[in-house]
């Protein structure tokens, strides 16, 4: 897997987490300018951050604002499953 592919996957995961955050904290969304291009950043990951900024610059539309959202702390990914049921077939 190339760096670009890793960064695309990481960005996708961060956008999903950001969407969840916005659903839980709608007041944060109010601070975003209308039609803004949101660029995900991770504190301490300069290679990813540079890639994200460069990618954003290449796709940003002229009159749309660009905002950087820097994630300073991210909890470990874990399952939300409370219980499972397993059925053996054959």
From TrEMBL:
Q: Which Pfam families match?
A: DUF5647
Q: What is this protein called?
A: Uncharacterized protein
| Species of provenance | Candidatus Hakubella thermalkaliphila
